[in-house]
Structures are given as C-alpha cells and as structure tokens.
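Hi Y.,

Following your request, here is the sequence exactly as I used it, all 514 residues.
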Amino acid sequence: MAVDYAVIIIYLVGMLAVGWWGMRRARSQSDFLVAGRRLGPVLYSGTMAAIVLGGASTIGGVGLGYQYGLSGAWLVFTIGFGLLALSLFFSARISRLKVYTVGQMLDLRYGGSSSVISGAVMWAYTLMLAVTSTIAYATIFDVIFGLDRTLAIVLGGGIVIAYSTLGGMWSITLTDMAQFVVKSVGVLLLLLPIAVWKAGGLHGMQERLPDSYFSPMSIGAETVFTYVLIYSFGMLIGQDIWQRVFTARSDTVARSGGSAAGVYCLVYAVAGAAIGTATKALYPKLDSPDAAFATIVGDALPVGVKGLVLAAALSAVMSTSSGALIACATVANNDIWKRLRRNARADAASSDGTDATHGTDATTEPEDAPEGEPAGDEVRGNRVFILVMGAAVVAISIALNDVVEALTVAYNLLVGGLLVPILGGLVWKRGTANGALASMAVGGTTVVVMMAWKGVLAGEAIYVGLLASLFAHVAVSLAGKPTDPAVLARWRSRLAGEAPQDGEKPGTGTPAGV
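Below is the corresponding structure, written out as tokens. Let me know if you'd prefer a different format.
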C-alpha cells in the first residue's frame, strides 16, 4: 500500500502546487472568474469534461452498472446529451454575452432585476452540488487511508478551497486539466480493461448475468425520461457549466470544444456501466451498488495501479467540487450580495433626496472592473466569497449523511424555476421581464408543492413544474407590453459579439451606477 499512498499524496500535493502557480495568472476579475476568457480547444474541452463528470458519474455510474447493467450508462449519457445540445445550439451566443453569471444574462435580456431571485435558486443548486461532491471525499479517503469521516471531508474540502481561492478559475482550469488526464488514464485505460478481463470478457459476463444486464432499457423508460429532464436540461442552464462556457476564447472553441467534451461523456458513460457490470459478475452479492467501485478497485487492481485509479476517483470529485464552489461564490457575490448592497445604497440616497446614480458613493465602486485591467479589490472580494462558501460547504457536508434528496430538490428548483426563462430569453424575443419573474415564481412554487405532495424523488414534481413555468412565462409575457426596444437592441448587439456600450457595466449590460 505504500506505493498507492505515495501516488495519492503526490497527486494531492500536485493539485496545491498547480493552484499556487495559477494564482500568478489571476490579476483581474476576468482572470479570476472566467480565466480571462482565453481558453483554447484543448484546455476548454478537458476542463469542461472534468467538471460535468464528477463523483456521481464515476462512482455512481459504476453503481448503476452494477444494479442495472449496461443501461446504467443512461445517467451519464443524458449529461453528455445536454452538454452536446448546449455546445451546438447555445454556447456561441452565451460566450458572446461577456457576462459572469446566468442572472446577469437574464437582466441583460429582459432589462429587469431578476438577479437576486434567479441567483438564490442558482446559489442553492451550486451549494448542494458542492456539498455532495465534498461528502464523497469521506468514502474515497476511507478506502485509501481509513480516515475518520469528518477528517476526510475537512482534508478534501480544504485542498479544493485552497487552490480555488488562490487562483480562481485559472487554478481550477489547470487542476481540472490534470484531473481530466488522471481520470482518463485511471478509468478508461486501466480500470475498464482490467475489470472486463477479470470478469471473463463480454462472453464471460453474459454467461454469469441475466440478459437484462445487456438490454439498453432495463433501467426503465420513465427513469431515462426523468434523467433527461433533470440532467440534460440542467446542463443547459447551470451556473457551473455556463461559467466554463465564459472561459472560451471564441465561439468556435465553445462549440467544438464543448462538443468534444460531450462525446467524451458518452464514452465515459459506457465505461462506467461496463465496469459496474463486470463487478456484478465478479461480486454478485455486495450490500450496496455504491460499494461496487471501491470493491473492484480494492480487490482487482495491482499495487500502484490501485493508487492511480483512486486518484482518478478523487479527480472526478475534486473537479466537480471546485467548479461548483467557484460558481456558488460567483453567484453569491455578483447576483445576490452586490445587488442587495447596490439597492441599499440607492434606497439610502433616495431617502436623503440624492440622485443614486450621480454624485454619490454608488458610482465610486463599479460592479465590475473592466476586463483585462487590474482589479485587486474585485479579486480579493471573490477570494473572500470562495473562502466563506467553502467553509459553509464543509460544515454542511459534516452535518449531513445523505444529501440525495437535498440535491434532487436543488436540481428540481433549478430546472423547474429557471429553464423556461433562460431558454425562452435565448430563443423567444416576445418574452418579458414580468413573464420571466412569473415563470420563476410559478415553476419554483409548483415544484415545491409537488415534492411535498408526491415526495421529493417523485418525477411528477419536475414534469408539472416545467409545464406551469412554461404557461406562466408565455401567458404573462403576451398579456403585458413587449420588452423595451432599447433593451432588445442592447441584447442583440451583445449576442453579435459587440463590446458593451459607453457607460455600460462590462459584466452586466446595465448602465453604470444603476
């Protein structure tokens, strides 16, 4: 085990070293939050694949393969389909907007003030995504070192918080690229062929297992449909995914690099399901499908290889955790805190009889410094938010034992409340700010009511919530006045890749001081 321990320790120290090196490149808010919008196709596709394929896709994907056979690939398949759809149909437009958050896109499109509402939903989603990834450290470190659960969470979470705080998106990009390589080698090139070989190949597995394990739909059509609604659509609108789109240096990179990452997800899905199926053939009576990954790694792999594959599992978890953490901090800072602080200053100025946009402190501290220019205060502020959100994630992870239901709530609220106004804003010019707000409120409320009535894991919550959100968006938008032509003109100019207009905040598309 000494060799395996050495591999893991070298990997963890390497992540911290890369994070420290990335700090030197994070000189502006744009560098810190979106890697300066300078990523080329190799870095972009590798880091995009790393963030979408986390512990649920790796450990959970093997578990689904153990439980259902090859059809267990559907969960990761739907993630790949969602990423392909985002990359092919929406990524170019998203990249050209030059914003930092989904909420800022909504404000730019509708000319309203939906950042706080949409930000609260997105914040809950990214927070719980980071929590689930952080809890996974306990399982992995227990397999590696036999560590206490709390200590494992603090250790894994602390490393992610450290390199994320140091260099922001630059550090996360560089560590994610390293994690992508480790994950590809560990899972695709080592664990997959070794597990299938030990199970006797495809023929040997077919002899030991029922035919249902080789049926493409044995997991159930309803389950697949639910995965599509939650995960494929979730890929289209999640802040953690959009923030990676913002890092692309061009439309072409966003489209081609994202498509390559989507295809990689499809390959990874088959690999995870095949590993789980092989594990079922070798160890047919495990207590839980979730134990399949640890079992096949612990019993079937030779010394050294075991350490590298466990490092691959850590890579999967850490890439998702760091991406969710910076997304959570970005939303909390830019969509919630700055908006509330600006509104409070405007209210104070109004009560004093002073113009909130002229001659007051409201304009001395712009929301975003110009991209590419030094912005020490902005970078320090974002670092503080990553530290605070990271500490919250670790504390919640220690307090919770099972967050499957909590993550389901977050995903349901995300898709049920935000999918329609976001996609509607991208494809339907008649949508209005009131329609978007009504869609968020009705969709989110319906999801909550349905979960309380039918149960948190019931598929009806997302089905009914989406329909209610769509109806509210269309009805309220058509019943009211169309969006101001000036707002739509600004939106179209940003979609065309034009720079922000004079006096417009670079990150949002709203006039400075407003």
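Residues 356-374, 506-514 have pLDDT under 50 and may be disordered.

Thanks again,
Q.
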